[in-house]
Amino acid sequence: MEEFQAIALLKQKNLAGLEPLIERYHLQAIRTSYLILQDADLAEDIVQIAYLQAAEKISQLRSPTFGGWFLKIVINLSIKAAIRQKRTTPLPSTEDEGIHSIQSWLLDPGPSPEEQVLATEQKTKVWQALTRLNPQERAAVVMKYFLEMSEAEITRELHSPLSTIKWRLYSAREKLRRSLTPVAEKMNPHSPASIPQPVDKEPQNENK
User: Fold this and answer.
1) How far is CA 75 from the centre of its chain?
2) CA torsion 125→127→133→134, rounded to 10°?
3) Dist. CA 66–CA 201, nearest whole Å
4) Considering the entire predicted model, what is its pTM?
5) Best label site of 82, 92, 95, 104, fewest CB within 10 Å?
6) Distance (Å, whole) CA 77 – CA 33
C-alpha cells in the first residue's frame, strides 16, 4: 500500500491504514525516542502512544508524507517524558560488556582485543555523554544529526526561537566534545580530535 493511500484510510477512521505506516517508520521512531529518553522500554511506550495520537489527529496532517509529522509527535512526547521522569542512561554492567566484547573477538577476527576494548569504551562514553545533556539538548542533537533536520526546521518543529535552538546545539556540542575527546585520542592519536581545535563562537542566546 502506498503511503498516501494509508493516510487516506486513516483520515476515513480506518485503522488498517496505520499498519503500513508502522512498518515504514517504527524503527526510526524507536531510535529517535530512545536517543532522547535513554530508556528502551519507555521509548517503546512513547512510540505506541504516538501512534494513537497520530491516528486521532490525522486530520491535521497536511503533508502527503507521514514521517516528518509523526516523528514530531514522537519527539515532543519523548521530551515531556524525559523531563517528567528525569531519567539517566541505564548502562550495561561491566560483566555484560566483557561478555559482549569476548563474543565480538570470537566472531570477528579482524579487530584486535585492544581495539575492541577501545570501541567498547567509546560506546559507553557516548551514552554517558548523552546523559549529561538535558532533554531539550538531546532532542536538538537527535533532530540535527540523526534526523538531519536544518536549524530552521528544528525551530518550526519545537516552536522555539532560532537563537534558542542555536544555543542548545552549541551547549550540547561543547558538553559532548569535553566528554568524548579523550576517547577519540585513544582511538586515534593522530585524529583531528587529538589536535586542539578552535572553540565554536558562542551564539547569542536570547532565550536560554
Assistant:
1) 9
2) -160
3) 37
4) 0.60
5) 95
6) 8
The predicted-structure confidence for 107-160, as pLDDT tens digits, reads as follows: 344 444 444 444 555 566 666 777 778 888 888 888 888 888 888 888 888 888
> Nine-digit cell at 65?
508524507
Here the cell at position 148 is 538531519
* C-alpha cell read off for 153: 526546521
Give Cβ neighbours of residue 173 (< 8 Å, ≥ 6 apart): 200
Question: Above 80 in pLDDT, residue 64?
Answer: yes
- How many C-beta neighbours within 10 Å does residue 198 have? 5
Cell 514521517 found at: 67
Please report, for residues 9, 56, 144, 188, the alpha-carbon distance to residue 59 in angstroms, rounded to integers and kept in the order given. 11, 8, 27, 51
Count the residues in the chain: 208
**Three-state SS sequence of the chain:** CCHHHHHHHHHCCCHHHHHHHHHHHHHHHHHHHHHHHCCHHHHHHHHHHHHHHHHHCHHHCCCCCCHHHHHHHHHHHHHHHHHHHCCCCCCCCHHHHHHHHHHHHHHCCCCCHHHHHHHHHHHHHHHHHHHCCCHHHHHHHHHHHHCCCCHHHHHHHHCCCHHHHHHHHHHHHHHHHHHHHHHHHHHCCCCHHHCCCCCCCCCCCCCC
| Cβ contact 167:205 at 8 Å | yes
